[in-house]
Amino acid sequence: MTREEKAKYIDDLAVQLVDNNVIYLADTAELTVEVVSSLRRKAFNANVSMRVVKNTLLEKAMDKVEGKDFSELKVTLSGATSIMFSEVGNAPAKLIRDFRKKEDKPILKGAWIDEGVYVGDDQLQMLADIKSKEELLGDIIGLLQSPAKNVISGLKGAGGTLAGILKTLEERA
């Protein structure tokens, strides 16, 4: 890579770091080309952008970004690193967790999710269990609808019972 190509690569990476609030760093070393291709395909299907990066160039890109403190993630930059970007906070974690059912890697190095920093593979399950914005909205709507459904079903049930009692009394008379 020439100096100009490196500078452009760093600038492009810095733009991606600024534009995304969900950033995962994973160790994909020792994976075969077939396995990495399979991981990329699954990432693409899950709307997760993934690419292998050089640690020194990623560190320079992190330094260029203003307003985000990546200092805690910089300590994870050793060995082979793949970076994943996503719109949904738990999508890359679920992807890694599901992929590791068949393979030993990728291993989560660290994640940046809406100003929160998570370092280490032990954070993977917790990150996968985080609910997405859509899931939270669905839960809230379900909770809001629940009392209304109870009142309506109560009124329907009581109305049917009351009408049945009145009809039975009318028939007896």
Could you describe the 3D structure shown?
With 173 residues, the chain is of the alpha+beta class. It folds into two domains: 3-130, Alpha-Beta Plaits (2-Layer Sandwich), CATH 3.30.70; 132-173. It is 57% helix and 17% strand. It is built from seven helices and five strands, in the order H-E-H-E-H-H-E-H-E-E-H-H. It has helices at 3-19, 33-45, 55-64, 71-74, 91-99, 124-129, 133-172; strands spanning 22-27, 48-53, 81-86, 107-113, 116-119. The protein has a five-stranded antiparallel sheet. Strand 4 and strand 5 (116-119) form a beta hairpin. It starts with a helix and ends with a helix. The mean pLDDT is 84.
Q: Rg to the nearest angstrom?
A: 26 Å
Please identify the structural class as seen in this structure: alpha+beta
Number of strands: 5
> Biggest sheet: strands side by side, in what order?
2-3-1-4-5
CATH hierarchy: architecture of the largest domain: 2-Layer Sandwich
Q: Which CATH class of the largest domain applies here?
A: Alpha Beta
Main pleated-sheet profile: 5 strands, antiparallel
Distance between the termini: 99 Å
| CATH fold-level label of the largest domain | Alpha-Beta Plaits
Number of helices: 7
C-alpha geometry? elongated
